[in-house]
Structures are given as structure tokens and as C-alpha cells.
Prior knowledge:
2 domains, Jelly Rolls, four-stranded antiparallel beta sheet, 483 residues, globular, mainly beta, Tachylectin-2, Chain A, ten-stranded antiparallel beta sheet
Amino acid sequence: MKTKQAFNPYMPSWEYVPDAEPHVVGDRVYVYGSHDLFNGLNFCLGDYVCWSAPVDDLGNWKYEGCIYKREQDPAAPRIRLTNGLAAPDMVQGPDGRFYLYYFMGGTKMISVAVCDKPAGKYEFYGYVKYSDGVPIGKKGEPFQFDPGIFMDDDGRLYLYTGFALEGNPILLDGSKPTEHGPMCFELNPSDMLTVLNGPGYIGIAGDKEAPGTPYEGHAFLEASSMRKFNGTYYFIYSTKNSHELCYAVSDNPTGGFQFGGILVSNGDIGLPGITDVKNAKNYTGNTHGSLIEINGKYYIFYHRHSNRKQSSRQAAAEEIRFENGKFYQAEMTSCGLNGEPLSGKGIYPSYIACNLYGKKGTRFLSMIKHPKKGYPYFTQEGGDREGGSDQYIANMCDGAVAGFKYFDLTETKEIIVNIKGKAEGVLHISTEEYGVPAAEIPVVSSRKLQSLHASLKARAGRQPLFFKFKGKGSFDFVSFELK
Length: 483
């Protein structure tokens, strides 16, 4: 039974869990992902945490706690900064236990931890290995990374790995990238570790093989994940474009995959009229996630970026259209898992904006913070869980736009914005990105949080809200209220 509205990001705004792999166990959906730190110097510097929600109440997320610490892996390098716990995946074994497959930076191997509960305290179990005992990754294979684990209906167990970005610093240990797409290993389900077959390639094109094929422009990069719907296999992956998740389909888990299309882009690139990073609707960077079916609906899980850099990533999800075996690209929204537009009455934090850009658009983010000038951005005060505040939008400057999708504005008559900062101008609020304002609010400088009111003249029904500032200076956009 639904008790809360669901937003994006669907976890609290102080939580940074990218690379989500969602799995339903019983009547709950559990999310396994990496763990970034707010303003972290690199990806994946936190220990693994888990969040879950009832399958019939996807706005009611519960923190399950830390499920696995980096130092539990015997091979964990002493230096954490460049050797974090990267994207994991989970599968339930034939013994009923839950197995977490992950990559530890600096090891070249795929590690496994195990637990009796989906979100309990996992214990180190071993390394995926060949029958001679040598771990995969230690025989000169292409770089092992981002493990996706999948158990088929017949009980056969498959591991998918790979990383294809030549010249990336992660390969400075002498490892080589995969040139032929993701690798597949069949594992022995009796011990969940030993390779029975592989590595093999499943037919998803690498960068050199993509030209002239449907994979052109969407070659494999990383983020392997496998799902099966209605007897068909769907392989989800991040492409060389980095900001998008795509999929491929086959009737065989080990080969014959054909390109399916884009599932989601964290800049909405690929939707009509949005062709590249220059006109992206939010800041772009890497993404990773997967598909899941819950109560007859399909969802794509992914992540967005905040704090002007790539390593403060947050979990997001969208309902996605699935018809006749085909998925259609999902649009980024603020209402994500809600199942319907957000209520036209209530207080909403600004950090649920799904569109955010400046007069000159957005940027593809790097590990170094991009300049503030001319660009609004998501940020927070303090650290993450320990004493951090909720996120807000900083630097709403001339030409900055924050877009929220969607609300039921049938009964909405008034809007109140809560802002502070040194700014003079007008905040225009409309229900079309480039439309006529439905409200206009004069903005004056204030060091303290101020609440500014206006009547809202909007069409009834499902509508977005776009906030655009025209004026001098900038302000922090904290929240708004619909009445």
C-alpha cells in the first residue's frame, strides 16, 4: 500500500549510491550499488550500503545499513583513494544464500561475498576462479570490471564483465581493455566461483566493431547487467557515450545479441530534439544501472551527477515503456517511481529537479569540479550521512533553468518559492520549457531564506514546472510549495 510519494533521487538527498542493481526478494526490492561520498575525490570510496522498499510502496525506502566493508576483502590494497569498491551485483544461490559479486580496485579480480539475508552482514567468500584455482583476471584476459551476475531458469549461472575505455587511468597497471564487448563466464552453481566455460564474447560490439552496425554510436563501454523477460534475454550496458544505458536482446544468454536501443540518458540525450551534450537537459557523466519488472510495470534504474563533478552520484529510476519485446527510452523525471504525477499541493525540495542547466547549457562532468560561473548545480552543506544537509540548487543565475516533471496542477492556484542569495531580477515559472510564464516572482537580495508568493495560472492535469531566472547575481533555490 502506497504511503509516500516517490521522487528522484529516490534515496535521501544526502545519500550517494550509483550503479544500482535492483532485485526483488520476497515483497521488497533491494538496491545494490557502489557508494560515493559527497564531494569525494574519486568514485566508490564508501563501503557498500543497501536500501530497500516494499514492492507496492516505492516511495518508502529503508536504509538497511552497511552490508560489506572494503577491508573485509583480503586483497584490498592499502590505498583507498584509487582502489574503491566498484559496482556490485547480487544473486541468490541454489543453497538459498545471497552472493554479492564485486570488483575491488587494484586487484584485477572479481570478488564474492555471501550472506544468509539479502541485506545482512556479508562475509568474504572468495574470488571467481578457473578450475586450476587461478582467479580470472590473472591470466592476461581483458580487464575484469563491473560484474553482472545472472542465474537462468534452468539453474545455470553466468558472469558478465568488461571495460573498454583504452587509455583510462584504471588500466595503468598494465591491464588491457576489452575490444570485443563484454565477456561472459559460465560458473559452477555448486560453489558459485569456479568457471565452467569462458571467457567468451556475446556479440555486443566494441568500438572498432560497431561502425556499419546498429551498435554504431553505442559501442560497449562498461556496466554489464543481464535480465530475462518473457523468455528473452536483455543485456544492459553503458556505452562509449558514457551518459546512456542501452540494451541488446537475444534468445541465448551467451551469444547472438542484437542492439535494442537506448534505455535512459542522464542528460535525456536521444529523446526528440536532444541530440548531444550541447543541448542536454542535465549534467552528463557516466551511468550504470539495470531493468526490473515490479507488479507488471518496468523500471530503469540509473544515476545522476551532482556537486559539479562525476564522483557525487545519486540513484534515480524511471518507469519505462515496454511493448512487444521492445523498450523505449525513458525520460528523466522528478516523479520517477511514483506511478503518477506528483500532487499539486505540497512542499517540494528543489533537488528533485530533473532538468538543470544554465544559459550556455550543461557540461559533461569530469573528476575536477567545473566552474560555477553561469551554471546552477546541485549541492549540500556539510558531509553526507554525518551531519550533512539536504541538497538544494545553488547558483541560480541569469538564464538558469530548473525543470520538474510532472505534477497534477488541476487544483493548484498558488506557488511559493524559498530562496536566499544576492540577486535582483524575476523568476519566471512556466509549464512549458520555452513557454509563456504561468507565474512571475520578483527576486530581491536576502541573506536569509525568504518565501516569495505568486498566483499560478496553469492548465489542469499533468504538467511540468520550469523555473527560469532573469536578472543579476545568483541565489540558492531551496524548495517550493504548491497550494
